[in-house]
Amino acid sequence: MSDVAVHEADHGTHGHTTSTGLSNNKVAMWLFLGSECLLFGGLISTYMLYRGRVSVGPRPGNVFDIPFTSVSSFILLMSSLTMVLAVSAAQNRDDRGTTLWLSVTALLGATFVGGQVYEFTAMYNEGLGFTTSLFGSSFYTLTGFHGVHVTVGIIMLMSLVGIIKRSTIPGDKAEVVELIGLYWHFVDVIWIVIFTLVYLIPA
Amino acid sequence: MAIIERPVITEGVELAPLATPSRAQGAFKRPVSATGWKSWLFTVDHKKLGIMYGVMAMFFFILGGLEAVLIRLQLAAPNGKVLSASVYNQMFTMHATTMVFLFVMPMAAAFANYFIPLQIGARDVAFPRMNAFGFWCILGAGIFINLSWFFGGAADGGWFMYAPNSGPIFSPSHGVDFWALGLQIAGIASLTGAINLIVTVLNMRAPGMSLMKMPVFTWLTLVVQFLLLFAVPVITVALFLLSFQRNFGATFFDVSAGADPLLWQHLFWIFGHPEVYILVLPSFGIISEVLPVFSKKPLFGYPFVVFSGAAIGFVGWGVWAHHMFASGLGPVSVAVFSISTMAIAIPTGVKIVNWTLTLWGGKLRFTAAMHFAIGLIVLFTIGGLSGVTHSVAPSDTQQTDTYYIVAHFHYVLFGGAVFGLFSGFYYWWPKMFGKTLNEKLGKANFWLMVIGMNMTFGPMHILGLQGQPRRMYQWTEARAGEGFFNLAFWNRIASIGSLILTLGIFLFIVNVIKTSRSKERAPLDPWDARTLEWMTSSPPKEHNFDVIPTVHHLDEFFHRKYEQDPVTHEYKQIATAEEIMADQEAHADKHIHMPSPSYWPIVLASTLPVIMIGVIYSIPVAIVGGIFLVLAMFGWALEPSTAPETDFDPPASGESTKELAPLV
After folding, report:
1. What is the ipTM of this complex?
2. Domains of chain B
């Protein structure tokens, strides 16, 4: 949904300032992220309720590889730094820098998703399937939803790189980069919560 | 952006530079039809979309109403044979689902879409394409959910679809799958609509219109959009869990696997209780517009109505567990939710008092719209009072799952939400279509609906307190009881009432047809109204206002028509609506940029039901649907911001004025 919001660009606001002084797109993105908090709130609550409910298969403590996930979490957090650099470059009208840092951000995000795929495969091989136990179902649902969000973010970043290269971006370029940045940081912050609650606090 | 060029009236004025459109991307063009079916299919005009929402909602209102009549026919006589037990279950589930998600919500969206930009002095919503996308989503959702009737039976778990009843064991048909996935699509429509309208209200108000100068309908709809924004994702999670259980073998609500079925109840009602305010607050907003106009007084205590609306929005999040008192939550939870439920009666009561005092001492005009507004105050108060009885947990555990509950929520939703919407029909019809609905038929429509609804839902209080269970499929003469509490008697009365109600609704449809055939045009300001939406032609021009008004007062339009005498403090008319219109046309903006129509909203929205069908029957179909979804998103994103002038037929020229085709 978010790139729907982002590319609505110059409709409506055109030619006159808004009542709040904030652009329509930016308010819309913040509202969307507010809504997303409730989505993850529901998923996290479900996981917290069910993480100890294992009748067959491995328990949470047996399958988590905390050093590995710490490294991939670190990579995701670093992608927020490169995202900031991309926004900064876009605000300085530096197209080369923008595309460079957007690509690096997407690459770091892709590394995180790759790590998640590896982690899921390893867990599956240890006997934790999607339907094995309530722990398995709720774990894969929660982290899977987060992974999908990161993937959508990567697609948006790469599309943005392509659009900037053809310089056909509608509206204010720096703002579009900033909006995708907002989404990206949000997904990172959610991961900090998930990593803490799911991996670090023992069930 | 289609550019509406108005004839240049004053000579020698420098023209403002036009926007530089973004470059067209070869294959991507924007449609340009201003008439015919294409102008509706690809429109992004908030007024056309409002009408489309309204037509769709009316269709589902009739469908849901027929389902209700079938339910009442089944219960009209002992050992009812009209419906089988299984079809009866589907019928009450789909009746509620249709009325809540496919009638009241889209009808409120119809009014919000049509009137919020007009009430705040804007030319469209903030995201016109997203607006169209929302409509096509909710239409797709409605069709998709009802497709289940033809694919092995509709959902049959009741509208709150409690686990484990919703699981594959107790509900083996695909009905629940269609229901859950269809509501996901409806959720997307609600979410995009909520974001769009919040941004519109916050960002696109006319100069001078501070938040506390906004009309109450706009205010309460804003509160509703915030409720939607935060409630929809919760039901989204619940529906995902349900779909994962039914389609992919997870066990989220399967007690035998150690799951907790209360999880569904909590998730559902965290959404479900804000949802009841989502249903009723738009109607509160409508009558807060109607009552002052027909009392010839400003709304009594405007800030109280606004802040009590916002208070309902906040407290509405803390009362959900009163739906679950019978599930054994423990004394602390029960006490907390009892108290919060009693507390939420206060802001609602504040509104009732404000409306009553608006009437007090006013020069009342009993039009059809006014009838429905007063009907709402009375009937909603009855429903509100029975609602307060639910907050008393010991009493509630007796009432839960009886007809008493059915009586309560029909008084608040039919007596509240539906009466408010009908008040809105009669009040705003001349604005939307330029013709006034017949007042005589309107009053007959009102009285039939009042009599019908009280006969249908009033006896349900007695039935419920006597222990007739909700969703009961048949009753028998032998166990009906005697005297005043004879269940047979009251069930028959309720069934007869439902037919009177149906007749009332039928009169409304007759009225609509009659009005659309009549040639009589409504006057520009038929009700002597107070708010900005009346400060333009009826129906409004495509660009709403020739010149964006600068707002100085609450009830700006009233203050442009009337001035207070400094000595006698009486209001004297200083201008008519026609004069104000003529003044606007004389000072019209010369370049008005309106968004161009677009192919992509309908294309993008139509991929969603395909994906959902795929989830139920065949994953490859879902994947193909998903690919088209992504492609449509790129199409949307890369679409040029305006159609080239040469695409118009005839090509747009600087001297013509493009106006919306007449709507009736």
Report:
1. 0.90
2. 289-305+328-474+484-522 (1.20.210.10), 527-589 (no CATH)
Contact check, Cβ <8 Å, B240/A46 = no
Question: How far apart, in Å, are the Cα atoms of B528 and each of B117, B289, B430, B474, B535?
Answer: 20, 12, 12, 52, 11
The whole-number pLDDT of residue A164 equals: 84
SS3 of B163, please? coil
Between CA A105 and CA A159 the distance in angstroms is: 13
Count how many Cα atoms sit within 13 Å of the Cα of residue B522 in the half-sphere of its side chain: 28
| Structural domain boundaries in chain A | 36-200
Contact in structure between B196 and B126 (CB atoms under 8 Å): yes
Which of B69-83, B221-235, B476-490 has the lowest average pLDDT? B476-490
pTM of the predicted model as reported, rounded to 2 decimal places: 0.91
Residue of B22, B123, B203, B603 to mutate for A, most A C-beta atoms under 10 A: B203
Give the mean pLDDT of B138-150: 96
Residue whose C-alpha is closest to residue B199's, from A13, A28, A34:
A28
CATH 3.40.50.920 matches A36-200: no
Residues of B in contact with A137 (CB under 8 A): 244, 250-252
The structure tokens listed for B174 are: 């695909």
CA distance to A95, B182, B478, B593, per residue, from B589 (Å): 38, 44, 75, 10
Interchain contact A81–B (C-beta under 8 A): no
A49 touches chain B (CB under 8 A): yes
**CB hemisphere CA count around B587 (13 angstroms):** 8
The residue that leads in pLDDT, B6 or B586, is B586
> Beta strand B562-564 with B591-594: parallel, antiparallel or unpaired?
unpaired
- pLDDT value at B656 more than 50: no
Summarize pLDDT for B63-73 with one digit per residue, the tens: 999 999 999 99
Q: What is the mean pLDDT of residues B245-267?
A: 91
Phi, psi of B563 (to 5 degrees): -130, 140
